[in-house]
Structures are given as C-alpha cells and as structure tokens.
C-alpha cells in the first residue's frame, strides 16, 4: 500500500505581495535595459559594411562583409556561457545588481569598439580587439536577457506574468529599431564618405551615455522582487 506524502501547508511566509508601483518600475527598467543591450548589439550589424572595410581592408568587398558578419555571429556562441555564469550570480547576489553589471559590460565593450584603431593603423590587432569586444558583448547579453526574464517573472503576479514578460521582447525589437534609426540618421548627416572614415564610430559611442541613463533608472526598480507577508 502506497504511503501518502505529507504536504506541507502553505503559510504566510509562502505568500508574496506584489506592489503595483514597484511592478511598473521593474518592468520599465528591465525593458529599457533590454532595449539598450540590443541597441548596442544590433548597431554592429547595421554598420557591418563599414566595419568590413575598416578591419578587413585587404579582402574582396564580399569577403569583407562575410568577415564582419562572421565576427557578429561569435557572440551568439558565448551567450549560453553568460547566461549560466550570471544566472548563478543572480541567485546568490540578486537580479538587480547582476543586471546592472551586465549592462555596464555591454556599454563599455560597445564603446570600446568605437575606439579600436583601423587595420591600417595597428594591423592584425584591430580585428582581434574587435573579436574580443564582441565576445564581451555576447557574454553580457546572455546574462542580461536571462536575468531580466527571471527579474520580470519574480515581480509579476501569476495572472499577468506572460504579458509582463512580453515587454522584454518588445524592448529587444525597440533596441534594434532604434539602432537602425541612429545609423541611418548619422550616415545621412555626415555623408557616406565621412561615415566610412569616422562616422561609423558614433553609434558605438552612444552606448556609454545610454548605460549611464539606465543606471539612473535601476534604483527605481526597488530592492527585492517581492515583500513577504510574514515580514510585512
């Protein structure tokens, strides 16, 4: 005869209270953070034709584009590692702190891409530095998206968890669209020749102030995801 397992009764400590104000701020901060991450990540793809000429000048134009896009694909291989690493840190130290760290890494690595000298200046070190920056981006994005998804899930009430989580994908698309708009605007203003020479760097430089702006929003998300009724 099978023994029935004793089910532990639910206590007040198992019930969480979601504050609507904190919920809105948390979703906003996570979505904007996701948009900023994917703006930084997507800008590279929109200026790949310029990067091919700057970092792989000796190759055929079609090979330049392939090389630039191949470098773009490397971060996708690194993303799972970032998700695992920052996921464990988030469990230990809290999602909010880890999200802030991933966005700082993304902002700095994106900004550094704009600082890399051309192949004509430092030779083979130019594409090597570019690859390292892209790997840092992939590591960051893997941690950011994983952390943001859990962050939103922890804040969201059961009946709205799917809807609230969908704002992360909205943030991703918004980041890509914003990146495309910035690249088109800058290339239109400075002209194609200047854009290929130095204008392509500007979208990468924008990453740093965007990261600073998001860091100002982070405290608005509040501390813990929920407040236990037992402590309230």
Automatic annotation (TrEMBL):
Bilayer topology annotation: Multi-pass membrane protein
Keyword vocabulary terms for this entry: Cell inner membrane, Cell membrane, Membrane, Symport, Transmembrane, Transmembrane helix, Transport
Gene3D superfamilies according to UniProt: MFS general substrate transporter like domains
InterPro entries assigned: H+-coupled_symporters (IPR051084), MFS_dom (IPR020846), MFS_sugar_transport-like (IPR005828), MFS_trans_sf (IPR036259)
Top-level lineage group: Bacteria
GO molecular function terms noted in the UniProt entry: symporter activity
Compartmental location: Cell inner membrane
Record-annotated membrane-spanning stretches: 41-59, 65-86, 98-116, 167-190
A Pfam family matched in the record: Sugar_tr
Domain Major facilitator superfamily (MFS) profile: 26-232
Major location category of this protein: membrane
GO cellular component: plasma membrane
Protein name stated in the entry: Proline/glycine betaine transporter
Originating organism: Salmonella enterica I
